[in-house]
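tool_log.txt
---
The assistant was asked to compare two proteins side by side. It first ran the structure predictor on the initial sequence, then on the second. Raw inputs and outputs are pasted verbatim so the downstream comparison step can read them without reformatting.
(1)
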Amino acid sequence: MCSACGVLSGAPDWLDRAGNPNGIGTGDSRLAERQKLIGMVNKLLKPSRATLADYGEKLILRSPTGQTKIVDNLAHVWLEADNIGLRAVDPLDEEYLMQLI
């Protein structure tokens, strides 16, 4: 699917239900759930020194050198983080994981 179709569909992204896949009964607002997920992603991005922030329906990824990318969803975060971070994001690499501690 092209990115325009994804934007025009208006359907919630899967990350909008970070702590509750059913989408009901968590007690947290959609914004609170989204902020929790962005916090988790930022922990994973730490070794690359890129950071993620919420921007309404979009996400902003910033490099340590000031480069900024607006991304549509979490899948695009990983692709862009590899391009703008100081180090590729490989959550299966043991050395990378050790830097998260």
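(2)
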Amino acid sequence: MKRNEQDSILKEQIEYYEARATEYDEWFLRRGRYDHGSKLKKLWFSEVEQVKAELKKFNPKGKVLEIACGTGWWTEQLVKYAEHITAVDAASEVLILNKKKNGQEKVNYIKADLFNWNPQDKYDVIFFSFWLSHVPPDKFEQFWLLVQKALRPQGRVFFIDSLKSEGPEKTYTINNPVNPTSLRKLNDGRTFTVIKVFYRPEKLTQDLKQLGWYFKVKNTTNYFLYGFGSLRKQNRL
């Protein structure tokens, strides 16, 4: 993918999440066009609970940085464990919704383009959900250098992402190393192109190992990829 084309898609990706902010919860709650019947809805929420249990076991305590915090479904979980959270997102509309859900007593909100953001602090835990798949492959190493810069010595990382395309609403996904993009449609019919890379646990574990990270990457049966780890030079899990 050419640099100008990628920059254009990344700009469109931010515009998409700005426009989708009020619809995002429909996806997470399996409502409207994301409701594929009670059986699949029950399966979705059972796997959400599975990932929540893994996050609880991980115990994201201390000072936490949440990258691409979105409308706050996972911020809500982090608040249970963290002393303080810095929640960063490029879309102002999702930050507004997140703030309504989780308040500002334990959360500080920052609007920033994550590909041009320079963290000014160090954190005990860095968390991101459904973000890594939106990082272009040629910015993968750059992103993990950002994580390393923001992480305290002995700090830990936990992430959640999509295991694979979910079905009808994402049938336009093109997943290949040259052009890993997905065409997304809003309720009003508008379409946006975003970066979307679907990782396999084994491959992602090896990719991170090459960058000096020690991670355990797992998946639920149908919907979620998740991982937790730290730098190899630090204490292993």
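---
observation on (2): The beta strands are 62-67, 82-89, 107-111, 123-129, 151-162, 181-185, 191-195, 213-219, 224-231. Confidence is low (pLDDT under 50) at residues 168-175.
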